[in-house]
Design brief:
The protein has helices at 3-26, 40-67, 75-100, 119-146; strands spanning 69-70, 73-74. It is mostly helical. The N and C termini lie close together (9 Å).
C-alpha cells in the first residue's frame, strides 16, 4: 500500500469515527419504553474496530514519514516545514493586508497614517515563502504517491 492510500484511508476513518460518535450520542437516551434507532452496542463495536484500524494506520504513517528521506530530510521534517510555512504565510498576509490598506483622509489637517514596513519588499518576501510552500507541498505529495507504507 502506498503512503497516499494510507493517508486517504486514515482520513475516511477519521470521518467515520466522528460520525459514529454523533450516532452514539443520538442513541444514548430514549424515552422509557422506546427503543433507540440504532443499537448502541453495535455502534460501540463498530467504533472500536474503526479506532483499531486508525491506530494501526497512524502508527505506520508516522513510522514511514520518520524513516523516508528526500534530499537528506525526512517526510516528518517536510511536513513540519510545510505547516510552519503555511502559518507564516497566513500571519504575514494578514499583516501585509493591514499595512497596505489605505486610510482615507477628508482634509489635509487630519492625521496621516503610514505603513510601518516596505509593502513592496514584504510582498516579494511573501512571494518567496509561497513558492517554497508550493515546492515543499509538491515534494510531500510526490513522496506520498511513491513511498510504500512501512
Amino acid at each position: 500500500m502506498k503512503l497516499a492510500q494510507a493517508l486517504t484511508e486514515r482520513s475516511e476513518i477519521q470521518k467515520k469515527v466522528e460520525e459514529l460518535s454523533t450516532r452514539l450520542s443520538n442513541n444514548a437516551k430514549v424515552q422509557e419504553g422506546e427503543k433507540p434507532s440504532e443499537d448502541p452496542q453495535a455502534l460501540v463495536t463498530e467504533l472500536n474496530s474503526a479506532l483499531d484500524r486508525l491506530e494501526f494506520l497512524m502508527a505506520r504513517i508516522n513510522l514511514t514519514n520518520s524513516k523516508t528521506l528526500a534530499d537528506g530530510v525526512t517526510v516528518t521534517e517536510l511536513i513540519a516545514r510545510r505547516d510552519c510555512l503555511k502559518k507564516r504565510l497566513g500571519i504575514m498576509r494578514g499583516f501585509l493586508d493591514r499595512a497596505s490598506s489605505r486610510v482615507d483622509r477628508y482634509s489635509k489637517t487630519e492625521i496621516r497614517i503610514v505603513a510601518t514596513v516596505d509593502v513592496a519588499e514584504l510582498q516579494r518576501q511573501l512571494d518567496q515563502v509561497s513558492k517554497e510552500l508550493r515546492q515543499t507541498d509538491e515534494k510531500i505529495q510526490e513522496l506520498n504517491w511513491t513511498t510504500e507504507l512501512m
